[in-house]
Each structure stands twice: as structure tokens, then as C-alpha cells.
Write a structure and sequence with these properties.
Length: 207
């Protein structure tokens, strides 16, 4: 059985002890119920869309009871809880919020690395930026652009990483990073010939 949430509306402001949200619950592709939580610590309330959906809701409730227990961490220990339709809906909401938060962080990271050296930890979604006055792609087209980036890394980053931190840029050639004294686990490995692409863009601007 497939259970999904759609038309999710979450309020960070109203979320006190639990997530405040409303959503439509779809069961096997059918819009069957409304889910709601006021954010004050109560359980999520699920109401059938109309009386014709009661049987489908009951089937979903029985299905959820057959699922493996969920787990959460509290006080440094793992705890288990039995699955219900309400807990499945809550878990789906958490997945939605986590994905939304990650997408927001990814956009922030992509924007920051356009014109700066970005370092931090992806797991903690934390980053710091050493900015330049021009995009890195443009800086790489200048004769001494690579040296400028390397010197910025040497002065501000090399030897100063905290545990788990690394350079997150995917637009700085690996050669520059290694020449700046970084180890392989201290930077993000590139999947494209960034320097060549940057030089090609530079030539196009000069035409």
C-alpha cells in the first residue's frame, strides 16, 4: 500500500512541540483524507475526505501496523515506536521538510561557490565563505587567477580545518587545491574539467 502526502502547508511559526501543518493524504493514488496538527504537542489528526473513504482509512491503519517499528534518538539512545497511520504521516512530513531544507541549503551552497571558496560540513549543513570580487569562473581566466585562489586557501584554510570540514566547491580545479596543500579528504572531487570550461567561457567573451 502506498501512502503519500500532497498539498503540504507547514508553519514554522506555529510549530511549538510538534510540527504545525495541514496536508492531503493519498492512499494508493486516491485522495482519501486530510491530516492536521496544530503544533502544540497533540497527535496528528486524520479525517477522511468523506464517509466513502472510511474503509480505505481503516485498511491503511491495519497496513501501517504491519510495518517495522520506527526509531528515534533521545538522550543518546535509540528508541522504537510502533507504526500507525498517524506516525507514517508524521514521518512523511519529516522527510518532506528534510528534503526542502536540503534543497534550500544546496541553493545557498551553489550561490556561495559562484564567487567564493566555500568550506564546512555537508552533514551539518554548515558553511563558511571566503569571497572574491568576481565569479571564480571569471577569475580562472586571468593569468594569475589560479594563484589568487591558491593563496586565499593557504592563508585562510590550509591547516585550519575543524573536524569533518572540507572545501565544498565543485568549480575549483583539483590541481589548485592540491598545490594549496590540501589532502584528498579535504576537498570535493570534481566531475568535470572546470578549468577548461572556464577558459572556453573566457575566450567566448573576448570574441
Amino acid at each position: 500500500m502506498k501512502i503519500e502526502l500532497k498539498s503540504i502547508h507547514h508553519s514554522e511559526t506555529l510549530s511549538e512541540e510538534t510540527n504545525a501543518f495541514t496536508a492531503k493524504v493519498y492512499i494508493d493514488g486516491k485522495f482519501a483524507a486530510y491530516a492536521r496538527n496544530d503544533g502544540r504537542g497533540e497527535e496528528t489528526n486524520i479525517q477522511p475526505k468523506d464517509h466513502m473513504d472510511w474503509d480505505l482509512i481503516k485498511q491503511a491503519e491495519q497496513y501501517c501496523k504491519t510495518l517495522p517499528p520506527g526509531t528515534y534518538e533521545f538522550g543518546g539512545e535509540q528508541h522504537a515506536y510502533s507504526m500507525t497511520l498517524e506516525s507514517v504521516v508524521d514521518d512523511l512530513l519529516e522527510q518532506h521538510l528534510s528534503k526542502k531544507h536540503q534543497q534550500k541549503f544546496d541553493r545557498k551552497l551553489a550561490k556561495a561557490m559562484e564567487s567564493g571558496i566555500v568550506f564546512g560540513t555537508l552533514e551539518a549543513n554548515s558553511l563558511s565563505v571566503i569571497g572574491f570580487k568576481m565569479p571564480i569562473a571569471t577569475l580562472l581566466t586571468y593569468p594569475h587567477g589560479s594563484d589568487t585562489i591558491k593563496q586565499a586557501i593557504e592563508r585562510n584554510i590550509t591547516g585550519q580545518f575543524k573536524e569533518g570540514e572540507k572545501i565544498l566547491n565543485t568549480n575549483i580545479p583539483e590541481k589548485i587545491l592540491r598545490e594549496a596543500g590540501l589532502m584528498e579528504n579535504q576537498y570535493t572531487h570534481l566531475k568535470a574539467p572546470v578549468l577548461r570550461q572556464a577558459k572556453e567561457r573566457g575566450r567566448k567573451r573576448k570574441l
